[in-house]
Amino acid sequence: MNILIIEARYYEDISDSLLEGAVAALQKVGAKITKLTVPGALEIPHAIAYAEAGERDYDGYVGLGCVIRGETTHYDYVCGESARALMDLAIDKCLVIGNGIITVENEEQAWARAKVDQKDKGGFAANAVIKMINVRKALAEKPAEKKT
Predict the structure, then answer these.
(1) pLDDT tier, 22 (very low <50, low <70, confident <90, very high otherwise)
(2) Which of 57, 63, 73, 79 lies at 20 to 30 Å from 31 by C-alpha?
C-alpha cells in the first residue's frame, strides 16, 4: 500500500498532531508513506491532482489540515471548496482520499480533534483510506465462475 499524505502547514502544531495520528495508522498496516506539505487546505486537492498526473503510483491519499473560523467569510469558502474538490477528485477519478481537514470554530476544538489521544482525526482519515482501498479491491475482483 503506497500512500501520499498531503498536509497543510498553516497551523503547524495542529498539523503535527494530525500527521502523528495518520502516520501511526498507516504504519500499523505496513503502508509505504510519502509526505508532502502545502501552504493551506485549498492546495491539498491541487497536490493530489498533480500526483495523479505524475509518474508515481499511489494507492490512496490522506489530506490533513485545519481551518479555524475567523472574522470573515473566507472560512466558509476554504471549508466548502476544499471538501468539494476532494470529493470531485475521488468520484471523477475513482481515487481513494481520506479527508483529514478539520474545520472548527476555535483552537480548542482543533486540538480536541487533532490530538491522537482524543478524536484523532488524522488517524481517522488514514483508516478511512485503508478501508476504502480494501473496498475498491473487493469491488474490482471478478467472482469465481461456478462449476457445473
Answers:
(1) very high
(2) 79
Which residues are part of a known binding site? 10, 41-43, 66-68, 71-72, 99, 113
Spatial distance between the Cα atoms of 103 and 83, rounded to a whole number of angstroms = 10
In a domain, 90, yes or no: yes
Q: Which of 46, 74, 84, 93 is catalytic?
A: 74
**Residue 35 structural domain:** 2-140
Residue 117 lies in a domain: yes
Residue ranges of the alpha helices (H) in 34-120?
43-53, 74-93, 107-114
The binding site for 5-amino-6-(D-ribitylamino)uracil consists of: 10, 41-43, 66-68, 99
Number of domains in the chain: 1
Q: What is the CATH number of the domain that holds 13?
A: 3.40.50.960
pTM over 0.85: yes
Give the pLDDT score at 99: 97
**Residue-level pLDDT at 71:** 84
| Catalytic annotation present for 74 | yes
Question: What's the rounded Cα separation, in Å, for the pair 45 and 93?
Answer: 12
Residue 147 forms part of a structural domain: no
